[in-house]
Design a protein that fits this description.
Length: 302
């Protein structure tokens, strides 16, 4: 019996140490989440305005004025920007995003050649397992994201699309809705001007999105439409990529915080159960010792 109680005590100590780790990770994730959420909420109105501006321009002008607006005759090559995390222990965050990306690959079909740009190690590993080419992989971007870190990604995507390397560019990320709700979404990034995309950003309702992008019907460009579009459209694409990374970062830290909180709660329940079992074993041991003493005394008296 003493052997059993020692084993249970070691187990209780081990679980308590684990709970300390998960609690510390929860606090760290909560701190990062607050910063990420502040960034998301601060930039989301500007990002939505950027989307709506692009959508309005795409509806109001001739799409042949700029290569970023021109719809391809046939989609043969697609570039997917996949945003995941570098580390695990984030609940279903990475799993849900990778599952959505795999579903999108199936929808595109085997006739479409797909290449990927991955932000986060988990997504890059998953794409390699699917035998999809990873032309670029970026790490440590979703931790304290800065616009300067995301800018090269946006410029690379714009250059490749403008050169005609790809017929379409899509971006897959997790949209932050609340601390307990995050939604994996995949949007058409290029060519610009698809009204369906805006309905997904930040949980915006489709009716509201349609109303927003249809408000402006006519634009006047100075000095020329091409000159203005050359300046504004690349900046808007870069803004969209940056906002997607911010949304993914807030979702990652929120998911990790909730996962660590659940782990801490589960550890607490396990400690309670082990403590109860330990008390039972100790009481059984005490009862057995008393019985042995009583039996020994009775034998001596007899």
């Amino acid at each position: 019996m003493p052997v059993q109680t020692r084993v249970i005590k070691r187990r209780i100590k081990s679980v308590k140490n684990t709970r300390k780790i998960t609690k510390a990770m929860e606090l760290v994730a909560a701190s990062k989440m607050r910063k990420a959420v502040n960034s998301v909420l601060g930039t989301r109105p500007y990002s939505k305005l950027a989307w709506n501006t692009v959508l309005s321009i795409g509806q109001a002008v001739d799409t042949s004025l700029h290569p970023l607006l021109k719809e391809p005759d046939e989609v043969k090559r697609v570039l997917m920007i996949l945003i995941t995390s570098d580390r695990g222990l984030a609940g279903g965050y990475n799993t849900n995003m990778i599952r959505a990306a795999r579903q999108k690959v199936k929808e595109l079909g085997s006739s479409v050649e797909i290449e990927t740009v991955c932000i986060g190690k988990r997504g890059a590993d998953a794409m390699r397992r699917l035998n999809l080419p990873v032309i670029a992989s970026f790490t440590d971007v979703t931790n304290n994201t800065k616009f300067e870190e995301v800018l090269p990604i946006g410029r690379m995507v714009i250059d490749e699309f403008t050169k005609g390397t790809y017929d379409k560019v899509i971006i897959a990320y997790t949209d932050f809705i609340s601390a307990i709700t995050q939604k994996p979404i995949i949007l058409d990034l290029l060519p610009l001007g698809t009204p369906e995309a805006t309905a997904e950003i930040g949980g915006m309702e489709k009716e509201a999105a349609e109303k927003t992008f249809t408000e402006a019907k006519e634009y006047t460009f100075e000095p020329s439409p091409r000159g203005v579009l050359d300046k504004i459209l690349p900046r808007l694409v870069e803004t969209m990529v940056y906002q997607a990374v911010l949304e993914a970062a807030a979702s990652e830290h929120s998911s990790r915080m909730m996962a660590m909180r659940s782990a801490s709660d589960a550890a607490g329940d396990m400690i309670d159960d082990l403590t109860f079992t330990f008390n039972q074993a100790r009481q059984a041991g005490i009862t057995q010792e008393i019985a042995e003493i009583s039996s020994g005394k009775a034998a001596l008296e007899g």
